[in-house]
Amino acid sequence: MGRKWNNIKYKKAAKDANTSRIYAKFGRELYAAARRGDPDPETNQALKLVIERAKTYNVPKAIIDRAIEKAKGNSDETFEELRYEGFGPNGSMIIVDTLTNNVNRTAAEVRAAFNKNGGNMGVSGSVSYMFDATAVLGIEGKSAEEVLELLMESDIDVRDIIEEDDTVIVYAEPDQFHDVQLAFKNAGITEFAVAELTMLPKNEIVLPEDAQAQFEKLIDALDDLEDVQQIYHNVDLEE
């Protein structure tokens, strides 16, 4: 699973290059999560997860607090979560998760991004069956053996544990996210290199240079859309 983690790092690095955009995306996601339930992260697990993710992207506490306070106010703005699936060059597969207050606008913009950049939209389920919903948590300062022992002591059996550079990555079922996180926190680990609920491809493909350039242009066009929150794909960008 190492290359899959590399692609998560690639995505994270690309987003980190434009902090104003990542802050805006998280502000919207935090607001929506707080509006859908209790604005207290201790009782709203969805909100708590977004906060944990925001921390791994270095989103300032002031932005997190501002979004939650907005949700507590009288704003009647509502957002809907929508998923789009499509294809890029050379059989590449793409999943686009959005959070929108205008479904028609979002659908039109996502479709245009695909059509103008060598891709095409697919129907629901045309791509997602080739991906696995996965919880991914990464920590530093421990070995894979130490993490395995820690999780075994908490009676948590995860999909995989790998060590990459100075980071240990845990791949788990989506519903294990909070259990794994709690096991780490009970062991005194409160900082995470990554804390994501993501979609990992069952198989990755390597694109030729010209197709990869076109693919990256498509991904950038999608990521530039205001309503797009997450993009998942099956392309190994580390080759």
From TrEMBL:
Its main location: cytoplasm. The keyword Glycosyltransferase does not apply. It holds the Pfam family Transcrip_reg. One of its GO terms (biological process) is regulation of DNA-templated transcription. GO terms for cellular component: cytosol. SUPFAM superfamilies: YebC-like (SSF75625). Signal peptide: none annotated. GO terms for molecular function: DNA binding. The keyword ATP-binding does not apply. Residues 79-235 form the TACO1/YebC-like second and third domain. Residues 3-74 form the TACO1/YebC-like N-terminal domain. It is found in: Cytoplasm. Keywords: Cytoplasm, DNA-binding, Transcription, Transcription regulation. InterPro entries: Integrase-like_N, TACO1_YebC-like_2nd/3rd_dom, TACO1_YebC_N, Transcrip_reg_TACO1-like, Transcrip_reg_TACO1-like_dom3, Transcrip_reg_TACO1_YeeN, YebC-like. HAMAP family: Transcrip_reg_TACO1 (MF_00693), Transcrip_reg_TACO1_YeeN (MF_00918). NCBIfam families: PRK00110.1, PRK12378.1, YebC/PmpR family DNA-binding transcriptional regulator. PANTHER family: TRANSLATIONAL ACTIVATOR OF CYTOCHROME C OXIDASE 1. Belongs to the TACO1 family. YeeN subfamily. This is Probable transcriptional regulatory protein PRECH8_05670. It comes from Insulibacter thermoxylanivorax.
